[in-house]
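<instruction>
Derive structure tokens from the sequence
<entry> Chain with its tokenised backbone below:
===
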Amino acid sequence: MENQQANFDRVLQVVRNELNITGEKDLEDVKGYLRLKQLGVTAGTVTAVALQKTLFGEAPTK
């Protein structure tokens, strides 16, 4: 876990320096996106779930 945090820190440093994204909220969003990406969750999936919740309410659970 510590190594993973070091990797996030390096990636976020690149985001700060190269993309000029410096707000803490924005950096947390980037970190959250990267964690989802590691789990195989795409931005399209997140968008689809959010849209489904907006249109139809909570998705049924099994």
In short: Helices lie at 2-19, 24-38, 43-56. The mean pLDDT is 82. Residues 2-56 form one domain.
